[in-house]
Sequence to fold (1384 residues):
Amino acid sequence: MTLNVGLIGAGMIGHDHARRLERVVAGARVSAVADVDLERARDLAAGMPGALTYASGHDIIASPQVDAVVVASSGPTHEPYVLAAIAAGKPVFCEKPLAPGPDACLRIVEAEVASGRHLVQVGFMRRYDPGYQAMRQALRDGLIGAPLLAHCAHRNPSVPGTYTSDMPLTDTAVHEMDAMRWLLADEVVAVSVLLPRRNGRAPSHLADPQVLLMETATGTLVDVEINLSCAYGYDIRCELVGETGTVTLDSPAGCTLRGNGTASQAIPADWRERFGPAYDAELQVWADTVAAGHDGCAAGAATSWDGYKAAAICEAALAALDSGQRTPVVTKDRPAFYADAASPRP
Amino acid sequence: MTLNVGLIGAGMIGHDHARRLERVVAGARVSAVADVDLERARDLAAGMPGALTYASGHDIIASPQVDAVVVASSGPTHEPYVLAAIAAGKPVFCEKPLAPGPDACLRIVEAEVASGRHLVQVGFMRRYDPGYQAMRQALRDGLIGAPLLAHCAHRNPSVPGTYTSDMPLTDTAVHEMDAMRWLLADEVVAVSVLLPRRNGRAPSHLADPQVLLMETATGTLVDVEINLSCAYGYDIRCELVGETGTVTLDSPAGCTLRGNGTASQAIPADWRERFGPAYDAELQVWADTVAAGHDGCAAGAATSWDGYKAAAICEAALAALDSGQRTPVVTKDRPAFYADAASPRP
Amino acid sequence: MTLNVGLIGAGMIGHDHARRLERVVAGARVSAVADVDLERARDLAAGMPGALTYASGHDIIASPQVDAVVVASSGPTHEPYVLAAIAAGKPVFCEKPLAPGPDACLRIVEAEVASGRHLVQVGFMRRYDPGYQAMRQALRDGLIGAPLLAHCAHRNPSVPGTYTSDMPLTDTAVHEMDAMRWLLADEVVAVSVLLPRRNGRAPSHLADPQVLLMETATGTLVDVEINLSCAYGYDIRCELVGETGTVTLDSPAGCTLRGNGTASQAIPADWRERFGPAYDAELQVWADTVAAGHDGCAAGAATSWDGYKAAAICEAALAALDSGQRTPVVTKDRPAFYADAASPRP
Amino acid sequence: MTLNVGLIGAGMIGHDHARRLERVVAGARVSAVADVDLERARDLAAGMPGALTYASGHDIIASPQVDAVVVASSGPTHEPYVLAAIAAGKPVFCEKPLAPGPDACLRIVEAEVASGRHLVQVGFMRRYDPGYQAMRQALRDGLIGAPLLAHCAHRNPSVPGTYTSDMPLTDTAVHEMDAMRWLLADEVVAVSVLLPRRNGRAPSHLADPQVLLMETATGTLVDVEINLSCAYGYDIRCELVGETGTVTLDSPAGCTLRGNGTASQAIPADWRERFGPAYDAELQVWADTVAAGHDGCAAGAATSWDGYKAAAICEAALAALDSGQRTPVVTKDRPAFYADAASPRP
Fold:
């Protein structure tokens, strides 16, 4: 009954997912690993009894030993692998981004619609964070009234020198783009990007911090501080402001230390520490869903359509960064095949 | 040795200051009260042994029984009273706004400079809030590095139906305009106003909430949520984000109640509850300063120049609200007589 | 209309009260200072225009320039001064302890009862702390049901080498003895003292920490950690546990600093910082009450009877420390003149 | 490679562990279920493909389809099943208590020592709670100095009418007995039980709340409020007080709701919600350890010896409840086979 998962990509995130599938997720195993660097695939597979290795992800998809696929290779390779998995009728969990731009994402959407089955889930793990889930429930339960505003911050202690000024939007704030659509059950229709005073600690070519403003169809205004050189820790903040109240994401709890004149709580060092349980839950629910045979995308998880929407918001945000202007987010109409954000698939 | 204070204006805020001067501030008393409605002045003075009453604030200023003046009358009357107090050489504490627009404020500034003495203090009481003071100290102590961003929220449970759409900026956010200049020791050079989805609970003609963006000379970007129909309480929030850390205003502490499945803390009902101790401290320090004979404006308090700056930011914000555009804040150069925000008077 | 206060005792706490009466409390001044060391009295009076100086507190009490008396001299001198003030019919605010033991306190109680007037207030300032007041209100409002347990901690960073093992009970926990009677509106009927592992940082002869257990007439059990060498700050904790909920004293709020991997809040350095506003409020309310001519003890403040009760609990606690046994608290019956804790004077 | 686990006991906790082994724990499955009520075993096994069913736990232990055993049957049956598993050389995870009294536990200890292998793990799940783990790490890292005191509270909203007055100690506080030995790395040498005012909401025959005092070999004093009718939620509190600081267990974080004049956080409804992740981690680590073939008890988990110690503390606590006296905890010397609490098995 164990789900045999083929893993494409044996890099950092591939290693992480492999470990998770083997050691954390119940009812799943890694049955095959592919990487363009075959040696790297073999190294990873060494710790997984019976796992096959390939140099091409397409061999993974074709393998009879593979029931479902996890795509953790580099962004530009996502589209062909996901399309191939759809063609093969195999469920595929694709790390974010679904594909590098909205056009590529749209091709995936169209292929999935044509297949008639929900086969694709995109790795937006915040939907599985207990804090975000509690916020969403509070909103749905009417505890704060209709949403009017949201304030977000996405802070990393530092980023590598390879980070370029588009990446705060496409690699970092992309999580808020999906999370806010999901939390608010609303669509982002326009974006702006503001550039505050640069942090002297940021890589010298990097515009950091940035502030992303997102306006939704109902007029809710979301501001996102993207701050990649904050030094002090990995800190994710979010407050939804409704007509009668607000709900705020708590920082993860552990213990409070009193010493040296202060009471203090530890802040996570990085996204692994902060969202580890959400990554675990995300893959567990996906594996359970796939094993149950119904579908390749768990209820409430990010679909191809969500991946496309995130890519379209990213594209508009990059244009806004470039022009300094408020920029509409233009997308196709949602196929009936996908539930909209306001009423996600059950 | 008691400081004899003449109070101009016997309305709500006048009553509040009278009570404070008589019953909270050490070393001061109300020696005279003026109001255009003389009956109102007499009612207020009834509880204050020996207090004279007048129908005109100018009589207060001229009275030999008055050492210093508190102006708590309606905004348009501030300018003539403050100018008269300067002319009489009497220290004057003027409730915000100093005067309705930057031009009127500038006339006060010029008169004060010409007088050669610091005689005017403006009632921006947040400078005396322990939480704001702790934030400012943290910034000055280098605990968060150079400031890059600030996030503010100014929430009232509701406002009267008489509130018009300019007042969220001129009556409400004006506190943040002064507080951020003082906290950041920086000048606001441009503003924008965004209008999110309207709160259905707001008076029908009122644009509420609003978001004010302020950019400072050094590039720090300040966002202020102005939310006057939040229903749940009076809530003032502020976070300064620096290059290596952040500092956040705590909500006032009391006790935590555990019951019915929640742990909860009370939120102040209104500004009186939230900032009562700051109002008390503000007037005490002013009375101490005046009584010491040095000056009519306490070190670190808001001067005429600060009142002028706040008025200029308000004016730009109203233009930004009207045009929907980013609007520069244009002001005169600061006279050497006033310290700048970055290096306030000792 | 200014209340002329005579101050007995020009030591540390005397200086503190003098400064408070002159510079913080509205409607009061220090009109005379006495100290056995006359030079010390003169030094203190130097900063107070018109203040007389004496070598004996009895001269203060007799002085026509003195409307009311603050006793801040050493503990053993309290009884004669308070008795003299009662005899002179002058209101007297006496620092804790009212007198060194229950017998001396009882003599004061009897003299006050005989005088037919409430002339004595004891300096238990926690009754004026907003956090404690909020807890008491929550209990009275029925928000936690009937009280069953209370957990307290009284932590000082360190104490002088002169501290002896009785003082954690008589000088430190005495505040909890009064505060818990007042909070719970209940009487302490038995006490025990436990000695945990000694803190190696404590003075070598000092039993520190100690745990005081107090049982009330209704069976509520109070535990108090008395910890005088905790190093990290001055920390006062209290939780009341009722039948349906609990209420916990919050630590004073200021700001939260995020830096170096932690979110942290400052802890007060000492009792002055923690309870400064409570000391201010206590003397202001006392001065207001006295000036109003009704009484020498504010409604809800600690009376002579409360001072006697605290002394009786101290005496029992010392016996319990000595014997290692649970020890009943034995006191006289309350004169009708005093309201009981459960129904304090309005 | 999947670990085949035989489950003894198909009651409430058995169902919970079955679900966990099948759906949460990676690398394990339930291969057999036994219950004295065979129908109940069959019902439970129905959802687990291939699981055998038996009426006797001894059949489970003997089954070649069973690699390791989970004992979740009623307390009195634990001893024979655990002894049988040891005799069979099969690892056994036994829910707390290990056995109803110290003598029975000691027989298990002796059998395990004689077997020469660590085959038994006891289900004290708090050792796997992230908050407790962070507290323990803080203590070990020297962040609070040597421990002097600990304050605990164990609060349930209510308990069934079947709860008798021994159960607050043996079924509830037993978790604190183990957790404090593990946190403090110290042994409990004496206990007392205090009975505060009874909660009127408790079942009429139940002494509730109770306060358990535990003294350790080094003199650390632990107080535990056991409160089984607190109404408001399931609340577990713990503070360790050391020579230079303290560390406090945080309540689990989710989100903070601001509404109706309060800021509030949800409190878990029951132990499942509060400790669900700890139960999950506990079984995952046990399964990993067993699958690795080294041992039947994970490093840091509770051994038979820890189960014996908890039973001995319970026995002393019951005597203390009965007598009202401080009661020593008397135990055998620790066999060299077991690490002591201060230096647990690596």
Observations:
- The first strand of chain D starts at residue 3 and ends at 8.
- Chain D has a mean pLDDT of 96.
- The domain at 130-270+311-328 of chain D is CATH 3.30.360.10 (Dihydrodipicolinate Reductase; domain 2).
- Chain D is about 35% helix and 25% strand.
